[in-house]
Fold:
Amino acid sequence: MMIKISISSNVIGEPILAESIIETRTALNISQAHFDSTYGEIIAEVETDDFKAIRKALESKGAEVTVLDHPIVRDEEECVECGACISVCPGHVFSFDEEWGIVQDIEKCIQCGTCIKMCPHRALSLEK
Amino acid sequence: MVEKSIEEINRRIKEDNVNVVTAEEMAGIVGELGAKEAAKEVDVVTTGTFGAMCSSGVWLNFGHSEPPMKMNKVFLNGVEAYSGVAAVDAFIGAGQLSETEGFDYGGAHVIEDLIRGKSIDLHATSYGTDCYPRKTLDTTLNIYDLNQAIMINPRNGYQKYNVATNGINRTIYTYMGSLLPNYGNVTYSGAGVLSPLSNDPDYQTIGVGTPIFLGGAKGHIIGEGTQHSPETNFGTLMLRGDLKDMSADYIRAANFHEYGTSLYVGMGIPIPILNEQLAQSTAVTDKDVVTNVLDYGVPSRDRPVIRKVNYEELRSGSIEINGKDTPTSSMSSFKKSREIAEELKKWVAAGDFFVNTPSQRLPAKATCKPMRQTTRNPLVQDIMAKDVVVIDENATFHEAAKMIMENTFSHLPVVSEDGKLVGIVTAWDISKAVAETGCNYVKDIMTKKVLTSNATDPIDIAARNLDMKEVSAMPVIDKDRYVIGIITSNDISKLFARRR
Ligand code: SF4
Ligand code: SF4
Structure:
């Protein structure tokens, strides 16, 4: 499953992530990370079985953990299968099938919203 | 030599024994049999394309109201239609934006809503004449209420199109979609192997009067399109079709983020195979259609060419840009283009659709000129303040405050010991510094990432940069980063006010 770890400024200097990983012996597959002096955000994949433990560890150290369980939705009526969304998606969610139709692997979606602005047909949304 | 006549092909269509294939299939057939045999075998090759065609619109005739009116301004669902023609005719263009909804709704959406049979609010105003006394009108109507709804695309069927990428460090939003920073992606448009004009690049069969598939209905080519430039392989077509017969499967409104609205138009042309040469040209593949990748990060008519590329490379999913594998996105739909070529093939095979000889050939020699501009673009150097006061980074902020007080500027470019630009301070930075403790020097409070401009930049580019970054002034620097002036949004607004 995909999770988002948000680290606010008061704890940003501390090695929260490394400590939590070592403590719980959990593998985090980080797909996106953004840090500056005020805020940190990490998108990562974690085994469902390990999720509870890593969330507990991270939260006890002051991080916020959100489950990304509302991936992108494509309205097949609106979609014309152009493929505009393919190149902008950091998660490589969209691709062409053999017949030049669009297929998506929504497991990989990190809910960044980039594709929504790209789609010329307003076919994509992150509705809950 | 294989020679076939249009009459012969039409006879076969009528007698149900025509051999019609799509341009994609034709490439394989010619590869296998050679052009000569393929020309004997195949009678018609169908093409198709489905992509954004901003240059689209519909002529509407509303019928006369009682009392009658010479419509002077016309709005359809809040989108203005051009009505500077006869009393109740108007042209709704795909790219016109709604007065109230802006980027969310435009002429393209009105066109799609009409096709879908939806009701449209018509608002019209006029000055009133003896023959047309009425001054305002509001009514609601749908496509069936109109006398005519004729789609005219002044420019469609682009032979191929430039490919877009972006070399600057922010995402830009264009009619080619979102272009990620630092050559982060590539977008392209066009059907390559299925592209109508790439299959008959010499305009042997495509000409005035050629029957086509347009938006799911039968339409016609009425001439070359605007910006027709066959000499550079950028030929275009002007098309006509009856909107009343069209389907929303093949005509779709589109919104390009921060750009505007456009219309996706499905179009296909049948090419009668009259001779070997046509068999050969319809055997074109994605690999044969070559175009340029341009840097849309450069806001100029002459965008730099990054590289050449063919449609096979583009459709592979990524191409190399500056040594990096860069993902590609198609803005047009190949799947739909294929559907159109297949649909047209069915029409011909079913004996519903015939080919003809153009009543006039399209110009094969023409290029597209840039605009003649009779007033010089104002440049930054024309309006920048040249007597700019700068401050040393090691000065105290008290000195900076004094300088701002003594002069009328609210921005002070900060320079290093050797006089080069290193930052900027504003009156606001200084008041903040007063409130905080611990910062004594200009270098502690200045903004280090300064937006700058060059003396020879066009004003419009400087204005857009100021707008985008929401700052009100930019130092103007030379190539060694010495400050030679400052330009403010205030100066620019004054200039624009004069230009109006
Ligand atoms: S960009 Fe939009 S219309 Fe195009 S394939 Fe993606 S979802 Fe479909
Ligand atoms: S929101 Fe869109 S662009 Fe972002 S990861 Fe999900 S599918 Fe990709």
In short: Chain B is about 25% helix and 30% strand.
